[in-house]
Amino acid sequence: MNNFQLSVLCLAITLVLYFANKRLYRRFRKLPLMPLVLTPVLLVLMLVFGHISYQNYMGEAHWLLWLLGPATIAFAVPVYDNLAIIKRHWMSLSAGVITATVVAVTSSVWLARLFTLPVRSVTTPFALAAAKPLGGQPDLVALFVVVTGVFGMAIGDVLFLRLSIREGMAKGAGFGAASHGAGTARSYELGPQEGVVASLVMMLSGVVMVLVAPLVGWVMF
């Protein structure tokens, strides 16, 4: 089997695993069975035990990474459909975006200096764009963003319970700011209002982060 055939096979396996995982998660709503959790684990096991290089895997699957951009923009549709909610709570949402940006920048710089890591935070398409002026490695950036999102989604409900946060919009803002696409997907499971708020906070925080990335790199690195 040549490299092209192997790449096409990996792409097919990725799609089959993902859609099968979605059907499984619809039936059994357990965190370890979420497509964002289980599918990547299965793919990593496939690459490791199949002795398949990352380059061969990404050969024909690279467009899946490209689709992250349009997928993120698609979150704007429910945001537009719920403009009334956004206008009514614009001050709270603005505070959430500002807080998310400050915390993301501060924690990223602190971790980068402590562990000599590249930049992380904001959702994957934005993070890849922000990494370029900072000299980050795109593959590692994507990995850390996904890990951050899944981890935040996993502990989000427990954290909200511990902090006695019951307001849906607050949960949506927290998931969107800290857990990116994974958190936004979780927010839509909680309710449409939570999902809309998560989408808006995620997108605005991402845009702000990309715009200030060069300044962050100049001031803090």
Average pLDDT rating? 75
Helix content: over 70%
Point out poorly predicted stretches: none
Alpha-carbon distance between the two ends: 46 Å
Order of SSEs: HHHHHHHHHHHH
Write up this protein.
This protein is mainly α. 83% of the residues lie in helices and 0% in strands. It has 12 helices and no strands. It has helices spanning 3-27, 35-49, 54-58, 62-66, 68-74, 76-81, 83-88, 90-115, 124-134, 138-162, 168-190, 192-220. Helix 1 packs antiparallel against helix 2, helix 9 (124-134) packs across helix 10 (138-162) and helix 11 (168-190) crosses helix 12 (192-220). It is globular, with a radius of gyration of 18 Å. The termini are far apart. The mean pLDDT is 75.
Brief write-up:
The chain is mainly α.
Task: Give structural attributes.
221 residues, mainly alpha, 0% strand, transmembrane, membrane, CidB/LrgB
Detail the topology: elements first, then pairings.
Elements: H1 3-27, H2 35-49, H3 54-58, H4 62-66, H5 68-74, H6 76-81, H7 83-88, H8 90-115, H9 124-134, H10 138-162, H11 168-190, H12 192-220
Main location: membrane
Organism: Pseudocitrobacter cyperus
Protein name: LrgB family protein
